[in-house]
Sequence to fold (154 residues):
Amino acid sequence: MATYDLGHTGFVRIIRAAYRLFDVGAIGLLRMAGEEIAENTKLDQVDKDLAEVQDGIFALAVCPFAGTIATYKNCCGSLPEDMFALADHANTQGEAWVSAFCGIHQAFRRAKIGDSYQQIGCRGGDVVVIADQDILSEDEARSILEKNACVFAK
Fold:
């Protein structure tokens, strides 16, 4: 089965341009990119193999941007630090981003699922970030993220 890749270096350029702005507007630009993807893409094309781990709580084992990230790392050695600095900024606002790709992905999900969507947490390698939410305890979220890339409620 082919891996669905959301755009390789095109998204990296968008994220780097947004980073240069580095304010709430930059986060908004990433969300707009996710919303645009949602206009022409079905949820199951991006969020493949979702598992309902509790009633209304879903986990995704592999990030849909994993192919994009791997391609960029193979080409350039590592992701730009901008990717993580923007995520750090979003996390100060209560978000759960391990990289700027999370902003695009989560906006895509919100556009497809609606207001009932709530991101709970993300994991990228050894980095785990839990959103400011009241659905799962931090321990419950971390337990789910031991085997998954992200967890959310809908």
Summary: Strands lie at 50-54, 57-60, 118-124, 127-130, 150-153. The mean pLDDT is 85. The chain has one domain: 9-153. Residues 9-153 form one domain.
